[in-house]
Amino acid sequence: MSARGIELHGPWGHVFGPLDLDIDGGGVTVLAAQSGAARTALLMALCGRMRLTRGSLTVLGYANKPTKVFAHSAIACLNELDEVRPSVTVQDLVTEQIRWNSPWYRLVPRVDEGGVENMCAHVFGDIERPALHAFVDDLPEIQQLLLRIAVANTRRPPLLVVGRLDRIADDGERSAVLERLVSLGESQSVITADVNPVSAHCGVRGVIDMHGLLGAGDIGVMTKAR
Fold first, then answer.
1. For residues 156 and 187, is the Cβ–Cβ distance under 8 A?
2. Residue spans of the chain under pLDDT 50
3. Roughly how many angstroms between the first and final C-alpha of the chain, as a whole number?
4. CA within 20 to 30 Å of 98's CA: 20, 34, 142, 146, which one?
């Protein structure tokens, strides 16, 4: 990934930029930056979910082609895109995603525990799977986040973007989620963001310090999302 002079302006003004950014393929890259709409917008732009105002962005070999990047990437844990309603159960969420991925003519029954296991195993690793009939909103925070990643990452595209890592209150759970992202980074390029310091020994490929480059941003930017 290579960005040169990228900028974004929302309906009410400047959001971020100009920025230069280089990210190598593979592993986990953490963008260390203040949380807010600007950071969210940057994550969305890097995976083709938001069009830049100006600048050049090459991702996965596609230069200034957000539609191509969109087709070869996944994004999870950004409420602007994948927030789950409180009344949705684990069974409903997994079933809906499987139906979405299936051909229109194929009848997909509601999943059982095996269906949840098939979707979650690669992302969850040794972490306990969510109960089939539990409401997603009632799950422990770590299970909520990993479930959202599993649902978004069913096709395992080359690029996976994960937001909201620094909103995990428990340090141990945040470390556990990061460990799972490092595992996913063995076969994908994973980009996430965290306002908190990230240890150089936690297995991430790189940490890019963007403090001072990304502010809180303009909340109106989300009206420009793809």
1. yes
2. 218-226
3. 20
4. 142
Q: Which of 192, 202, 217 lies closest to 32, judged by CA?
A: 192
Strand, coil or helix: 10:
strand
Chain length of the chain: 226
Please say whether the structural domain 2-224 has been given the CATH code 3.90.870.40.
no
Q: How many CB atoms lie within 10 A of CB 88?
A: 13
Q: Which two tokens stand for residue 10?
A: 């929302």
d(CA 168, CA 212): 23
Pairwise CA distance, residues 148 & 85, whole Å: 12
**Which tokens in the block code for residue 71?**
């087709």
C-alpha Rg value of the chain to the nearest Å: 17
Q: How far apart (Å, rounded) are the C-alpha atoms in residues 57 and 152?
A: 23
pLDDT tens-digit map of 49-61: 999 999 999 999 9
Tell me the per-residue pLDDT of 26-49, one tens digit each, with 9 for 90 and over.
999 999 999 888 999 999 999 999
pTM for the structure as a whole: 0.91
